[in-house]
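seq as requested:
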Amino acid sequence: MKQIFSISGMTCSACSSHVEKAAGAVPGVSSVQVNLLRNTLTTVYDENITDADAIIAAVQKAGYGASVGAETAAKAAPQQEEKTGRRLWLSFSFLIPMFYLSMGHMMGLPVPPIVDPGAHPALYALVQLLLTAPILVFNRRYFLGGFRALLHRSPNMDSLVALGSGAAAVYSLVKVLLAVYAVELGQIEAAHMHAMDLYFESAAMIVVLIGLGKALEEKSKRRTGDAIDKLTAMVPQRATVLREGKEVDIPLSEVRVGDHVVVRSGQSVPVDGVLLRGSGAVDQSALTGESMPVDVQKGDSVLAATVNTAGYFVLEATRVGAETAFSGVIRLVEEAGASKAPIARLADRISAVFVPVVMGIAILSGGIWMVAGKSFGFAIGIAISVLVISCPCALGLATPTAIMVGTGLGAEHGLLFRSAQAMEAGEGINAVVLDKTGTLTSGVMAVREVTAAPGVDKAAMLRRAASAESLSEHPLARAIVAYAGAHDAAQAYELLPGGGIRAEVDGHTMHVGNGRLAAQLGVDTRVLDQAAALAAERGETALFVICDHNVEGLITLADSVRPDAAAAVARLKAMGLDVILLTGDHPGPAQAVARAVGIDRVIAQVLPADKEREVARLQASGLKVAMVGDGINDAPALARADLGIALGAGTDVAMDSADVVLMKSEVSDVAGALELSHATLKNIKQNLFWAFFYNVIGIPVAAGVLVPTFGITLNPMIAAAAMSFSSLFVVTNALRLRRFVPFHAPEEQPAAVLTVEGMSCAHCEKAVRDALRRVPGVDRAMADAKTGKVRVWGSGFDDDAMKLAVEEEEYIVRAIRRQGQ
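struct tokens:
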């Protein structure tokens, strides 16, 4: 069973390591992952051996709070932020006068005579004590958490802060008592010496600066999850359902499978479902990135978080709440952000022993300086500086912050990384293997050319061919029927396996099929053989139209290359990657597609099982392979590849086998996903370098290595500020990723733009769009009522046919401008 827990009390990577260790030690727990950014623990355990209560008990025994569900941490965050703000304001209200009192006389600032350290050293020391005590009380969480962690033998960042600030406070308290005692004995000079050897400002400043740094860090860390928050906000929190024939507005959480949900124009779809009645134009950009609305009607499926831009419909809920497709996307992004990249393992191993090592260095440094003849006050200052400058947080945050931002940014651009491992795997890829059908091509056959035999009417021939194919469900048949438009129905129909079809149309015997069928029928096709040969060279499928055993024409069809395919391949090549086309299709069509998109290496006629072997062979040659596909037959190869990338419009099997899902189903996003992976790993390496560099330099300086040569020591206050800055730097650097824009091919230009008069609303746009889609050759259309412009994509369509189609809907076409005009 998989279960998420909310964890409280974690402050650094040492904490997350202790929580993982505690939860992982529970019998029956097979997987443990801690998300320090969101304060959650994700476990997988055997319900027959253990349960959630046992895991909670283990975490609590380690010194941390735990409860079932990630919502607890999310709800607690605003309250915690408010408490932190109030604590900081109160702390600063005491810190400022205390700092002025302790440091003002050194800066030449006026100090009230009553607390002058020369005249009244004991009072001067007591006032500092009184000002420091409330600050330490306000920030007691560091002491409670830090010493509790020490008692559990799992020291963390709080332990370092508590020891550093506590040591400074205790040392200063002793000095206050000595100053008071010296005054009682009349030894004013001795009292003055004790009063000037206080570390109250360090004790107070350490906890306040650490608190300020943590507050800024938390605010920055929350921004790393902005992408997930934006995704979550796309789902409406309420829904309109039908109860006993009446519309009732209810919270989304109360919608159940089988409920009838009403969706009006402009509203977001709250659940996944199937339309029962009505129609609409649904904007699916939240899931697919496709800006053009998709028309839906009775029987069509719609998904949560999509927007009904026009129309009204009632749907039956099929998946609600956490079971919707959109919730799955959010869950995928969250799990990817919570997972650990292999590059983080070194930081985890160091974090696990970091705090005890630092404590040892602090004790050793102080002891060495005392042996060297320095005062106890000097030695304690060195030890405090070592404790508070060391920063396990920077090490722990280096990887997860970048992964969280990277996966969130990817989700915003339709690039879903399933895990941090997938994000890291993308960086080392040096070869990209692309499937052909459905990946480089649209996967939809379309008529490319119609050629009539001498003396045959082309339109009549095409109509008879479409009539013959009208009863077939074959993709080639559907393409011919769609291209021809108007046609009659066949009176009889027979499928001829491996050859084509036979049908009776208006008293004529029609055959539509390949050259093999024509040869079997003994039909002379020489007048069209050259056209068929040229089509084969282009990788197109050629079908002969035969009427009463006489060849009438040739129809060539092909799967259209995706508009962004050539730009995608060019980008991958520019990145220095080998691009390979791997397909089960014949060499002719495969080579034609390869030429069209700019691929030099083609592996054709490969069976599904052999695709996996081809990927393995490439890997054996030393290549790190990314496999891109969309079908069931691609699943083994996707699983075998170093990085499997599936198109979102592909099969569920392909997507389940992939490491990355391209929700827009655009092949140009392959380059975008790899670029995002590179940028994220570069950011992680920068963070890790800073974290290691900071500690490697900072700890020795705090320990006093510069004292013999330069006489430089590090004040504990400066050490505390440096510690806070180091964590803030790592998080801020990760946030820079949000400015990164992954590659995406420029939008395909429309083949024609119509200026249409009379459109005034979304319903008008839909009417014009539907009318144009019925015109042969038009692939898609997008209408804008505000500008009166209608963009049309496709090829081979007739301007007069478009004009007639629009005007039949009672709109006026003022102009038609073709691309390039």
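The two ends are 62 Å apart (CA to CA).
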